[in-house]
Amino acid sequence: MIIYTPIPLELVLEGNSDFSPEYQEVERGGFKLLVENLGNQRGKVVRLLSSNPQDYLNPLLQPGEIIKL
Amino acid sequence: MRLQYRRRPFFRKTRKPPSGPSVKENQSSSTNQNIQQLGQINVPDLESNLHCISIVGQIEGHLVLPPQNKTTKYEHVIPQLVAVEQNPNIEGLMVILNTVGGDVEAGLAIAELIDSLSKPTVSLVLGGGHSIGAPIAVSADYSIIAPTATMTIHPIRLTGLVVGVPQTYEYLDKMQDRVINFVTSHSKVTEDKLRELMFRTGQLARDIGAVLVGHDAVDEGLIDEAGGLGTATAKLREMTSGGKPEEGEDA
Fold first, then answer.
1. Most C-beta atoms within 10 A of its C-beta, which of B2, B29, B32, B41?
2. How far is A6 from chain B (nearest CA, A)?
3. pTM of model > 0.80
């Protein structure tokens, strides 16, 4: 794996060693989502697990969306 | 008794929002979230026959990057491109780039998909389309760069688990060739020119390479035209409607 960027690598990977997010799989409205637990019953969508390509156009299922756990 | 009576409405008021999830509530919560995250509310619904994908920040590949990076996740963009290809309501795709590069394989994967999409595609480089952003920019049928946008062309450097042996150089050269071959076969820039830009000295503070600002990228043949959103939309509309520009110029 090669990261090709003009930004110094030490800046890109800063904090990588203590970055260990907690992921969990949840189901919302029939969609399976991989969610990063932010605590306080909130979760950030990391990935949508679906084989239907049209689901990926749904703005409520984009990575970064905050959902209630 | 009086105390109880007074308390109830207060209790209700605070408890009401979390209970009873309805479609309406879902919408308002997504609006709230938009205000919180993007500082803006939803724009009015408008059926568009064009789809826009923005590639921002780092292109995240096989490694999840630490949270200070703003990233574009290739595992989400790839099915989106499949959906664009498949959806009969989408007639054209605009790819807006403001990226600092990222994972070579993820970047090339997105570039190859945009290239092989059967619908008309236009790319618009705003701000920056550096490193692996270059193959993505040239992968569209027509590429446009904002006059103030920059593209950094520089060699691939060593990262990750690579041992320091003479073969390492060959490996890097191979990775470099993948990028160079893609860019030269999808734009007017020649291989010699691209290599010359890549190994130019005196333009980058900590690296060798070249910085192409707006028109420079067009002059070198990397990008088709300098312009903006109006130019890109007009071009895409022209391509989707089979050559005839629709209803007046709004550029």
1. B29
2. 7
3. no
